[in-house]
Amino acid sequence: LLFDAGGAPAKAADARGPSPSPVFMPAAADLEVALAQKNLFVVYQPKIHCSTGRVSGLEALVRWQHPDHGLVTPDRFIPLAEGAGLIDGITLAVLNDALPWFAKWSSDYEELGELTLSINISARSLGRPELIDTIVALCERSGVSPSKLIFELTETAAMDEPVAALTLLTRLRVHGFMLSLDDFGTGYSSMLQLVRLPFSELKIDRSFVASAATSQESRAVIRCITDLGRSLGMKTTAEGVEDSATHTYLQEIGCDLAQGYLFSRPLTPMLLANWMDKHLEKVGGN
Ligand code: C2E
Ligand code: MG
Ligand code: MG
Ligand code: MG
C-alpha cells in the first residue's frame, strides 16, 4: 500500500476507492484528526554527491494516509496547515519520526560517511522562537547533532519576511543547524538578502532541472545558480533529476548534490533501508 509514496499520484491508494472521486479537499478539522490519529507519515529521499554518486543525506517529506481518500500529498495540506496554525505540529511530527530513523541509519550505514537530514520548515514557524528549543531538545533526546540537520525554507518564504527570517535563521545557525534555500529560482531573492541570510545550500528548483535535457535556457539558469552558490560559499543541490543526461551536465558544471527519481523516489523507512543496503553494495564503504 505504501510502497510508492513518491511525488507521483499514489496508484495503490487511489485504486482502492470504488470510483475515481473528485480531488479530496481537506478541511483543517480533517488535518487535526490526522495529527491526533497519527495518519501522517514520512518518506525519505536520498541526496547524492553529483561527482561520486554516493549518498550524502536524506530529505524527509511528509505524507497523509487518509482512511477514506487515500494518499494526500503535502501540496494539498501544507498550505492548509499553515493557515490553520497546525504547521508546527506537523514539523514536530516529522522530526519525531525522522530523528530516531536518522540516528539508526547513521550508525547502520556508518561506512557511507556522515549523512545529513533535511527537514522542510514553513515560513509560518519563523515567528516562533519556542519551536527552536523544542527542536534542540528532540535532537538531544535522539542523539542527533544539530550540525547534521538541514532546515529547508522556500525562497518565497525567506524573502517575504526577511527580518523575521533573519532572526529565526540566525538562531538556528547559532545552535549549529544548517540552512537551505529551497525552490531557488522561482522566487525573487534580492542579492542583498541572499548574502545576509545565513544559508549554506541553494536548492535549484525542479522546474529548471526537469527541462535541463531539452532546454538550453534551463541549463543556463542551472549553471548560473551553481556559479553563484560557489562564489558565495554555498553548496548547490539540483532537485528533480530524472535523466542521466542531466546528471552528466550537473557533473560538468560542478553542481555539488542532486536529488531525483533517477536515484530514488522518496521511500518509506523499510524501502529506504533496502535502497541503502544496495547502495552500500554498489559504492562500497569509505
Ligand atoms: P520540496 O521540499 O521542494 O520537495 C521536493 C518535491 O519534489 C517533493 O514533492 C518530492 O517528492 C518531489 N520530487 C523529488 N524528486 C523528483 C523527481 O525526480 N521528479 C519529480 N517530478 N518530483 C520529484 P512532495 O514530497 O510532494 O513535496 C512537495 C512540497 O511540499 C515540498 O517541496 C515541500 O515544500 C513541502 N513539504 C513536504 N514535506 C514537508 C514538511 O514536512 N513540512 C513542510 N513545511 N513542507 C513540506
Ligand atoms: Mg525541500
Ligand atoms: Mg524544492
Ligand atoms: Mg517545492
Task: Explain briefly what this protein structure is.
With 286 residues, this protein is an alpha/beta fold. It has twelve helices and nine strands. It is globular and about 50 Å long.
Compute the average pLDDT.
90
DSSP helix fraction: 40-55%
Q: Structural class from helices and strands?
A: alpha/beta
**Percent of residues in β-strands:** 15-25%
Number of strands: 9
Q: Terminal Cα separation, in Å?
A: 35 Å
Query: Which cofactors or ions or other ligands sit in this model?
Result: ligand C2E, magnesium ion
Topology as H/E string? HHEEEHHEHEHHEHEHHEHEH
- Rg computed from alpha carbons, rounded to a whole number of angstroms: 19 Å
**In what order do the strands lie side by side in the largest sheet?**
1-2-4-5-6-7-8-9
Low-confidence stretches: 7-17
Major pleated sheet: 8 strands, mixed, barrel
Task: Determine the number of helices (DSSP H or I, runs of at least 4 residues).
Answer: 12
Estimate the global geometry from the Cα principal axes.
globular
Structure overview:
Mean pLDDT is 90; it is low at 7-17. 44% of the residues lie in helices and 19% in strands. The chain is α/β, with parallel strands linked by helices. The longest helix is centred in the middle third of the chain and has 22 residues, at 87-108. Ligand C2E is lined by residues 6-7, 45, 61-62, 73-75, 78, 90, 94, 120-122, 152, 154, 182-183, 206, 239-242, 259-261, 266.
